[in-house]
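User: ok so my PI wants both of these folded by tonight, can you help

Assistant: No problem, let's get them done. Here's the first:
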Amino acid sequence: MNIVITGASSGIGLAAARRAAKHGAKIVAGARSAHALRQLVTEIRDNGGQAVSVVADVGTEEDVNRVAEEADLVRANARGGTTALLKMAHFAELYGTN
């Protein structure tokens, strides 16, 4: 399974990315912090997982499109499969936290 996680540089998004990768998901990690994303992708790969990152602000349509394009590339390289999207910003709005 391919999973796109926005807000993957910290908090719930970071925890979700780590856990999903541990269970074999291919991760497309999106966040505004390039440094934190690099650390996450390195950590996942060092532990035998697969991950790519996209520096993005999901508040902008252009960045959302770039994340979606990367997810499509991951799915195509995996010869299909399911892609799930976890947009952590939505959860933050829903529960009033960030």
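One down. Here's the second:
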Amino acid sequence: MNAVKCGSIDDNVYLIAPYLLPIHLLPESAGQPDPKTGKIMLPPALNLGSDRIERTGVYLLDDGRELVFYLGSGASPDICVQLFGKPYSELQGGKVLT
């Protein structure tokens, strides 16, 4: 609760409406600097809702304080190995701090 009280409006917006980025649908331009602004381009964020989550998807949730990977149980084994170096069946579930 202190984080909300002490945070700026801009910081607290992420807590109310976090970004949900579909990692499995990255456009070619994602991760590259924008030629006009120089900022790194991200995939378009989705509105947060269960109807947006696909069983085969890989998502990054950003609430401004933590980044959470959500990996659908039907995600491509190739994506799992590319991102984490392990197949889905060998990944540790839950909150993992490194």
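The mean pLDDT is 81. Helices lie at 2-6, 9-16, 77-84. Good luck tonight!
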